Amino acid sequence: MYMTHYMALLADNQPWNLILFMAVPVILAETVAITELFILLGRAYDGALRRINRAASIAAGIYFTGVFIYLMLNAVVPLTQQGLWRGPADWIAVGFYLSGVIPLGGLALLDLNWICRRADVQRRMAIHASLVALFLVVAHVAMVFGMLDPSVLGAMPMAAAHAGH
């Protein structure tokens, strides 16, 4: 099967890449999302759940910033320089995965009180919930396109592409 670089990354070096690039960010983000629901439903803007939510948000933002930098330097730049992208599904999967740094970074900045300092608690929670939702959307787009065979959107495996020349 021909696969995107997103899927290849997760499939390589088992189980470590799957843990580092999928499990850790998803567990942190899901912790934020689940605690966010209880916080918003109960209007419990402080307390143990909010402390867990805040810690997971900060950890996710910092961790994923490291993942973003690592993958930009070790995957995106080399793939681009060597012309090794596997078509639109590949670009979309990797691009959306890496764009997760925006909402996760935003969550960390918000919970570190580096942005929106003057907003009241309800406004901050609305921004927080919006960033959680944005992360869920970009992560799922990345997963869907990452699991897609790149040939479905017209990419050809390298061996087939070179055979035509």
UniProtKB/TrEMBL annotation:
Keywords: Membrane, Transmembrane, Transmembrane helix
Gene source species: Chitiniphilus eburneus
Name of the featured protein: Permease
Entry annotated with the keyword Magnesium: no
TM spans (from-to): 20-40, 52-71, 91-114, 126-148
InterPro entries, sorted: DUF6803 (IPR046547)
Top-level taxonomic group: Bacteria
